[in-house]
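Protocol step 4 of 6.
Sequence for Heme O synthase (Mesitornis unicolor) entered exactly as in the expression construct, tag removed. Do not edit the line below.
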Amino acid sequence: QFFEVPFDSNMNRTKNRPLVRGQISPLLALCFAASCGVPGIALLTLGVNPLTGALGAFNIFLYTCCYTPMKRMSIANTWVGAVVGAIPPVMGWTAATGSLDAGALLLGGILYSWQFPHFNALSWGLREEYSRGGYCMMSVTHPGLCRRVALRHCLALIGLSTLAPVLDLTTWTFPIISLPINLYISYLGFRFYRDADRSSSRKLFFCSLWHLPMLLLVMFTCKKSFLEKEDKGDVLGGSRGRAMEIRLP
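Step 5 output, structure tokens:
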């Protein structure tokens, strides 16, 4: 917001932000950001693990130094912004496990894909405002691409949900139970792609608000327990040990 005061003042949805209205000074805003960011990264690094702290620092850098200026330069900002939104659940995984493995990447992938129908549908109704503010959004400069990308990532959520049991993160009930809500958001994504009006974009946007928490709740309910994986590993280890005993003289 510190960098975007002149542009936010041209948009109805941002013209009442405290910096735009002069309710707080730019110096105070920077001090507040630093007082949150620096201790936050330190707490994650020292109190959780260095990997999670590094991801937090990288996300702040990515948002402020890459995504924010790119919003006025290229529609690629949406893809960068999706990475920014995908990193927090990855941080949750690394905080719990200390590793950046398949589970972290799958959670990040779900959040990454979800953001395209969510934001593209939202930006469709704000095209005039984004254009007035000078922001390079797909909905303004590439409306056809905006709709195609939203539909593409709605369908990607079905594939990502199917990957969860393949990676041994959930049971096979997860892709089955989540299929109706994934098909529904895909249907609304198709309607948005076909009709390209405010009604279809609003329906897709509001669906995205409940779709994500419900999808993650189902994923949590169907997750494989750590003890189950450990027991499976012990059984496999025992089988290997017996095989070795047979081979030994």
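Step 6, annotate. The first helix runs from residue 5 to 8.
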